[in-house]
């Protein structure tokens, strides 16, 4: 029930597009990095709101889901996405002489949307990208959803370095469009790996928090649901708002919870009872979407997490007093490298991230108090 509700975020896509397309960054760093926990609507926003607006504003747009692996890795995803641009830009009629790479690609079955990935290299894909920029003379916005996954790809680094080079107009023919990149990620830390270190392909860019849905969404959803429910089964917008916060702003989880309550024994009124008497049940739902939970965490990882929660921004994992405190509950003081390894495991699961060297923080600060109770239980 109620699968088709979608709240359009026109105002946000407009602000993002205007900023992004009009920007000419120094050092040719035309990229936007957006991060948020899972399930808050990044992919939906990009596909339903941002891409149509970018196209309307005159850019070519290519979207790759790097998590899906459907087309045989990053190279394949890029080829399929660029194929879409070739079709919509009508470049299929270009002759060999004008665009040799496009022609080579098309003769390799590209037009049928099933490019032969095995027979092309990362260099070829980058050349195709260049040809498109030069022949359409329009900006191309390349969207890499779950961009961090490209780092696990055999060609990942070569592709990223090549894209960075193509952002510089000096590498392209006169009048060519600009390459702009939008990257999203569900793990801030992994996305940061693309921008923070000196050797990182997009060093100098910074990762922004993806704007989450808020009050307007809650109001629109409540109204739409109430229109379907009987007069005696109406939702209260304040209750829905509280539930949405407890659920970490996950729209689909909220819809699921609201419909479940409305159909339950107590009806919509039961929602107030849940948010006042059992808010942790909603926090747990949010946590389950975002993490694989506590299963498999080692005793050391749990203890390190506890101390991190206690110390907050003052957490200093390798200080002697911290190691001693971690050791107190474990019977033995761990070495700094062991604590480092435990923290790496917590980062890998998306529970913790590293805002800077030697600094660690909870991925979702709203979860702090609740997580503490969960660990203590
Ligand atoms: N504006 C919206 N209105 C209604 N539902 C939405 C909206 N945005 C997202 N959703 C729903 O929320 C769910 C999660 O959205 P989406 O997959 O876009 O999130 P995500 O941040 O990309 O998550 P992940 O990190 O897991 O890829 C989907 O079921 C989607 O339909
Ligand atoms: Mg997504």
From TrEMBL:
This is AAA ATPase domain-containing protein. It comes from Pelagimonas phthalicica. InterPro entries: P-loop_NTPase. SUPFAM superfamilies: P-loop containing nucleoside triphosphate hydrolases.
